[in-house]
Fold each of these.
Amino acid sequence: MLSVIRGGRVVDPTASRDAVGDVWIEDGAIIDPPGREPDRVIDAAGCVVMAGGVEVHSHIAGGNVITSRLLLPELYVSEAAPEGHPFAHAGGAAAWIGSTYARMGYTTAVEPAMPPTHALGTQLELADIPLLDRGALTVMGNDDQLLQLLRDGEGANAVRDLVALNVATSRGLGVKCINAGGASAFKDGALKLSLDDEIPCYGLSTRKIMGSLLDAVEELKVPHPLHVHCNNLGLPGADDSFVATLDAAEGGASTSPTRSSTPTAPPTTARASVRLPSGSRRPSPTTRRPPSISGRWCSARR
Amino acid sequence: MPAWVRGAAADMDAAVTAAAELLGAARTPVIAGLNAEVAAIRAAYDLAGRVGASIDTLGAGGTYAELGALSRVGAMTSTPAEVVGRADAVLVVGAEPWSAALTGRILDTRPSRGRAAGSERVLLALGAGAPQAAMTVSAEGGVVPALGLLRAHLRGHLAEPGPTADLAKRLAEAQYAVILYDPAEIGEMGVEAIQGLVGDLNDRTRAFSLALQGGNQDRAVVPVSAWTTGQAPRVGFGRKIPEHDPWRFDAARQISAGEADAVLWVSSLPAPRPDWLGRVPTVALVGEGSGDIAEVVITVGVPGRDLGGVLWNETRAALTFRPAQGGAAPADLPSAAAVLGRLTERLAGGSGSSC
C-alpha cells in the first residue's frame, strides 16, 4: 500500500526540513518519492505534518483523574459531535482525552502515577482512551512492603525483585517515586519530610529509598528511567529539596527555566530538568542514568 | 438457558428480540441497577449513549451522600487494610457498621504498622450503642448535630464535661483515628460533618474516614462512569450528550412522575429489586431470577461464580478480577455484557464501542 500525505507543511527537525511538501509512505515506512501512483492520497493542505508528539507525563487515567472529575463535576462541557468517536464529545472522558491529544498532534501519552494496587482499574481506563499509544509508570516508594525490606536490610536483590514484580504485574513502562517515604511519614504525624529526614517507624530517608529504587531500575533495565517527584512541593524551601534530590540521584541538572517532561525527547534519553535558583551548584558528573524529575504539586486530599 | 418472555420460557434469540422490541418502542428508557461487573457497566453506558437512555444505580443513595460531600469539602479517606493495620481508635457512626464484616475484622485485630503498632485498639460509638464499644455517645437529635457537638468540643468552642467531651478527647489522643460509617445511613450532611471532623482532627493527630461499600457495585460504576462520560452516574443521554443530573435521572422519581416508559434492569449480582420495578415495561438481565419479575427476563452469568469479571473489591479497596469458580460454571450462560452488546447491535445498528 503506497500512500502520500500531500501539500502539508512538513516539519522534521532531524532533517532540517520545514517546508510545504509531500510525505510518501509504503508498508508503514516513510520512503523517497517513488515515481509511482499512490494507492491513497491524504490531503494535508493547511496542516502541519510532523512526527507524532510523545507526552511522557500526563495524568490521563487512574485514581487521581477519577477523583478530579468527581471533585469538579461542573468543570467539563459536553458538546454534540455525533460523528466523532463514541463519547469523544463528553468533556473529560477517556475518549475525549484521546481525541483531544490526537487533535494536538500527539500519538503517545504516559500516565505517570499508577499505584500497583490500582493497576487493573488504571489499565482498563487507559484501554478506553482511543487513538493514542498509552503507558503508565508504576508508583513505589511509600508502600509498606518496600519500606519494610529496606528497614530489615533485606538487600538490593530483594528490592530489585519487588520492583520487578510490581512493574511486571501492573504492566508499567517505568517506576515513579512520589515523595519517597513522605506519605508514610504523613500517616505517622509528619507534615514535612526533607531528603535526609528520618521517616518515622522505618528509620529510613527519602535519599535511601530513592537510591534503592534507582539501583533496582538500573539493574532491571526498565525502559523508562526512574521518575522522581520531589519532596515538600508547595512548602517554603522546597527548592533546597529539589537541588539535594538532584545531587542525590547523581543526575543531570539544568539551570534553564524549562519545566520537566520535554515531550519530544524519547524516554531513554530524558534528562532531569527543573528550575533551580541562579548560582546553584551543578551536580557531579553522572554515573547512574539520570532520573526524570518533576516539580509538580502533589495534591493533598483536603 | 433460562430466559422468559411474558412469563413463558424462551430461547436466547427470541428473548433478545423481545427485549430489543420493548426498549426500541420506548421514548425515555432507563437503565438501572448496574450491580454488575465492569464489562457489563461499560456495555450499559455504551447502550445508553446510543439509544438515549438514562442511567441510575442500585446504591445511588449512599453514592450521592459521598459524592455531594466530596465535591464540596473533599475527603481524607483510608482503606480497610490501612485501618486494620494502623488504627488505634475507630469511631463507628450510626448502627449499620456494627453488622458489617469489616467491623468484625477491626475488632479482631490490633495495630501492627505505623506509630500505633503494638497498642490496643479501641472502638467508640456515636449514635448507636454496641457491646463491643468502649464508650457510646447517643445522638437523639440525629447524627449530624451530634457530630457538630463533637467538633465544637474538639475546637474548644464547648468545654462542658460529659460523654461528648470524653469522646473528643479520646479521638484527639489517638495516633491514627478512623471514622467508620455507612453513607446510605447517615446521608450527605452526615458525610460532610465527618469530613469536617476528620479535617479538624488532623490539626492535632492523624485521622481518616472509611465508608462502607454497601451491597452494590456503585464503587465500580463511579470510576467507569467518570472515565466514560467525564461525570459521576445518574446521567441521561436523551439529548445525545451525557448530562449529569442527580435529581432528574433518579429512576424512582422518573417512574413515579411518569417520565420513563421502559426499564432495563441490569444486575448480574444478586440485588434487592426496588418496588418501582415492573410499573413500566421492563427487561431484566439478572444473575438469578424467574420469569415473573419482568416482561423479558434473561439470566446472565454471575461474575466471580459462573464467569470471570472485574468487580469492586471492598477488602482491597480496588477493582480486582474475580475468576469463575472452577467446576460450577453452567457453560451456556452469557455475560451481561454480551447480552447488552447484542441489544446495542439491534437498537443502534452498531457493534458497540470500538474504544
Amino acid sequence: MIFLFHSWDFILFFLALLGLYWALPQRFRNPLLLFGSYLFYASWDWRFLGLLWVSTLVDYFCGARIARSEGRTRKAYLGLSLGVNLGLLCFFKYFNFFLESFVALVSGFGYRPPVAPLTILLPLGISFYTFQTLSYSIDIYRDKLTPTKSLLNFALFVSYFPQLIAGPIEKARDLLPQIEGPKQWAQVPLKTAFYLFVYGAFKKVVIADSMAVLVERVFADPSADGGQVVLAIYAFGLQLYCDFSGYSKMARGLSLMLGVKLSTNFNLPFFSENYFDFYRRWHITLCDWISEYVYTPLFYYLPSRTSISRVKNLKTRLFLGATLSLFVTRMLFAIWHGAKATFVVLGLYIFAIQLLTVAVRPLWKANWVRRFDQGPLRALTRCLQVVLMFQIYSYGVLLFRAEDLWQVSQFTVALGQGFSLSAVTDPSLWALGLLALFLLFYEWLQYRQGDQLFLSKKGLDAQLVFYLILFAMAVHIGARGDQRFIYFQY
Amino acid sequence: MYTSELMEMLRSDPAVRRRLPDDFQMTDHLLESGVLDSFDLINLVAELEPRFDIVLGPEDLTQDNFSTIDNLNRFLIRKKGC
C-alpha cells in the first residue's frame, strides 16, 4: 500500500520516481508520471482503474466534440459528459442512500418494497476526479478552454497522483497547461516544496492523529459528559483541519518537486470573520468549483429566467434568487461529502448560519459598524468574531463526525447539561493543548505576515529552528501516522 | 465614464473596503476575487437603479454585465445610451 504520503513505502516510491523523472528527457516525463499515477492508484485497488479510464476517455472524446460542434449537438456532448461522470458518482456514492430513503418513504404508506442495499465499495477519490474532469468539458463548452490534442496529457490531468485521491480539485485551464508545458529542475522551488511537505506531514501525523485519540474515545462513549464532549468537538475541529490541510500541503509540496504548482486549498480558516469568509478559506478548490459552476450561473439564471423574474422589486427578486442558489449550493457542498442524514443537516446548518449573517448585516452596518468595526475597538471585535466563528465551525464538525442524528442529539443534550472540570484536568490533554496552542500561534503569525509561506522565505537558521521545534514536538508527543486521511472516504 | 462612481459605491461599505486589494483592477472579477459576496452584489446592483436613473429588466441580469467594474461601466453606458 503506497498511497499514504507519510508512509516509507510512498516516500521510496516518490524518490525513485522523482529521480527518474528529472533524469529522463522531457518527452518521456509525462508517460512516466502517468504510469506512476496508475501504479499509485492501483496500490489501493487496481479494479477501479477502469473507472478512471472511462472518465478519461469520455471527457477526452466529449471535449473534442464540444469544441467542434454547435447548438444542440454541442449541448448533447456536454450532457453526455455530465451524465456519465455524475451517473458513476451517484451510483457509487449515493445509490444506497437514495434506495434507503425511498424505502423509508414508501414504508410510511404501509408498503415495504422487497429490496436490500447493495454492497458497493466507494472508489477512492471519485468525488475529486469527477469534479476535476467535469471542469474540462464545461470550460470547453463555455469557450474558456481549447481541448488538448494529447490523450496522454489529458489522462495525466485526470489521474495526476499528488492530487488524485483528495485534491486540491484543479480546473483543467490551470493544471493542463502546466502538464503540457516544459519544466526544468533548476526552476523548482525546493525550499518551499520541502517546507510544504514537512509541515503538512507534521499537521497530519502529529497534530491530527494525536487529536484523533481523544476524539475516538469520546465519540465511542455514549455516557460522555458536557466537558468531554466540548473537548472532543474542539479536538475534532483541529483534527479535521490538520488532516485535510496537512494532506493538501503535502500534495502541493510533492507536486512542486515535479515542477507543477497546485492551488492553495486552505487559507487560515480559523481567522474568518463570518461564514462567507470561512467559505473563501476552507477547502477553497471545492468551494470555488461550486461557486463558479453552480452558484454563479444559478444566481443570474433564477431571477431572470424563472417565475422569480415576475417579482417587481429588483432587490427582492435578486435576494430570492441568491437565497435559493445559496440553499442549493450549500446542500451540494454538504452532500458531496457523503450520503448521510447528518450531512443533509450540515448543509441546512451552513445555509441557516449564512442566511442569519445576511439578515444581521444591515443592522450591523446601520448601528454598530462605526462603533465596533472601526477605531480602537476594531481589534477586540475581530477577536470576538474569530471566537464566535470557531464555535459555529465546531458545532458544524459535530454534524460532520457524528455517526447519526441520534448521536448529534445525544451530544447536544450533554453540552446543555453543564461541564465538569474532570475532563480538563486529565493530564493526557496537556500535550493536545500544547499542539493546539502551537498551531494557533503559528497560524496567527502567518495571518499577521499575510503569507502562509513566509517561513520558507526566511534564512536557513530560522528554518532550522522551526524544523527542530517540529522534531522536538514529534518526539515528545509522538508521531502516530496510523490514521487514514479523513478525506480519503469522500 | 462611471468607474470612479462605481468604485466609490464599493468603498462605501467598510467590510468591502477592507477586502479590496491594493492592486484591484477594473477587470477583476467581483465575486470570484472575493471582493464581494453575492449579497453585497445584490446591494450594489439594487443601488444602480436610483443612482443612475435606470430600470433593470430580467434580460439585464447576466454575468457578463455585472462580473467586473469594467463590465458594469460598459453596461451602464449602453443602458444610459438607450
